[in-house]
Amino acid sequence: MTLSYFKEEMMVSSEAFTVDELVETPWVPWERVPAGTNVVRTERGVEVIGYDASSALLRNTDYSTGLLELFDHSGVDDVTFRDLVESSVNYAEGAAHTRLRAAIGSFFTPARVAGMRDDVRADIDAALDAMGDAADVELVDQLIRDVPARVFARLLGVDLNEHGAFISRISEESVRVFEMDPTLGEHVTLAWTELTNWVDDLIALHTPGAPDSNVIDHLLAQQAAGNITANDIRSALVTLLAASTDTTQILAALMFWSFAENPDQWQRLRENPELASSAVTEAARYRPGDAWIFRVATVDTAIEDVPVYAGDHVFALIGAAHRDQRVFANPDQFDIGRSERMPLNWGVGRHFCMGRMFAVMELEEMLLATTRRWERIEHQDPVAASAAPYLSVQQSLPVRVHRAPTSVPA
Questions:
Q1: What is the distance between the alpha carbons of residues 215 and 101, in angstroms, rounded to a whole number?
Q2: Angstrom distance (rounded) from CA 309 to CA 7
Q3: Closest by alpha carbon to 402, among 191, 260, 238, 230?
Q4: What is the model's pTM?
Q5: How far apart are CA 352 and CA 333, in angstroms?
Q6: Of 181, 188, 216, 212, which Cα lies nearest the Cα of 202?
Q7: CATH, range 3-244+292-334
Q8: How far apart are CA 227 and CA 103, in angstroms?
Q9: 263-271 — which CB contacts under 8 Å span 24+ positions?
């Protein structure tokens, strides 16, 4: 039978979970669908549940990142934003994507991450010093929010104290377009207007320096070499800034949440700091900052036995994929020593997040610094914490810290 036949006969096969349920409990599909199910069709589109199927979707060139559709669905119709997004590395495909990815991605290297690690470590230590001997700490405002903002300010070559708060705020507000909520149209429009105007001012006021001294000078050097255009620079800075801090901030808060609920793993990391990298990976798997990654089908196709049509919204449910027991042993257990496959938070394939290495480094340094100073952490109010919305940690994470008599050797 053809896909056109199925399109008329099978529009909705399952409504086992709602969007609100996914946001609150990203792994809820495993409680609702038959064992072995990888894909279901719901009112909003095609939901891909299994790890392997989700990974394959994110690599598949038959699907776009759907950024234009996100703006449409959010009620944002400003042509300026559409043009910026349509020409961005996060939306482009084929030769255009290869060109942009090479020009922009060549800035985000392991050497640059390593070169920034000492500065990040100093930022974190300063934030922890500022807490003094307080037992009750609000981690988002007192530590988490500032770290990724200062990293991105350094990458841009702008003053950390003057622009850090703006970078953090505008990232939080701009990425609300991913909520696909039509009632947020005005809010998202205002955020992207402010973001675009700030980038335009940044470019206009920038004094060129040595190539690669910061991301702007790197992009200007790429333009001089004929690899990108002035519009490409503008688009790159807007999209990079929108994604600059929000995801790292959420992941950091969820990471500390997981450790507060698993004190044995905190102690394990204190005794084995070499596990910091795998601890970050496990934290991203166990409590991802996003329930799904959005895609749009560009052709009629199928995922396993579920037909997919051009224009369909398709969702890689990474929160569920990370609890796929066919891939992860005891998936509901938080185990910082895991050696299984990587979480899908940063995507895979051609649109893999260019800033992943920076995010992981920041999260590693937060863990290393806090486990040296604190014997354990716990929720200030465990009952309230257990009842709090999943993403409430984006704004607040009140914990009680038990300080170590002496620091654990680095």
A1: 14
A2: 8
A3: 260
A4: 0.93
A5: 27
A6: 216
A7: 1.10.630.10
A8: 7
A9: 263/376, 263/377, 263/378, 265/334, 265/335, 265/336, 266/371, 266/376, 266/377, 267/375, 267/376, 268/336, 268/337, 269/336, 269/367, 269/371, 270/371, 270/372, 270/375, 270/404, 270/408, 271/408
Helix (H) and strand (E) counts in the chain: 20, 10
Q: Do the beta carbons of residue 116 and residue 229 sit within 8 Å?
A: no
What does the block give as tokens for 221?
């050097």
CA 379 – CA 62 distance, rounded (Å): 44
Mean pLDDT, consecutive 10-residue segments, the chain of 410 residues? 38 69 95 91 95 98 95 88 91 97 97 97 98 96 96 95 94 91 92 96 94 95 98 96 92 97 98 98 97 97 96 98 97 95 96 96 99 97 90 91 73
Domain ranges of the chain: 3-244+292-334
267 by Cβ neighbours in 10 Å (0-12 / 13-18 / 19+) ranks as middle
Under a CB-based contact definition with an 8 Å cutoff, are residues 287 and 322 in contact? no
